[in-house]
Amino acid sequence: MGRIVAFLSYMSRDKTELGSWRFLDDAGRIMAWPAELTERERKAVTTVKVYLVNTTQFHVYFMETPPRSSRLSKRQLVSVMRALRSATCQIGTKVVLRQIKVKSEKLQRSVTPEILRRCIAKCRGWIPKLLLSCSQKKHDVGLRHLLFGFFGLYLISLYGHRAGVMTNLTTEEVLEAASGAVSSSPGVVLNVKNHKTARVFGCAQVFLTHEELGWIQRWMEIRARLRPQCDLVFFNTNHQHVNTITAFARNAWAAMLLPGRPSLTDIRTAVATMCRNTHSSDVRTQMARVMCHDTRTADRFYAMQLDVGQMAEMRRRFAQCMGEEAAENSQ
Question: Which CATH class is domain 109-273?
Answer without folding.
Answer: mainly alpha
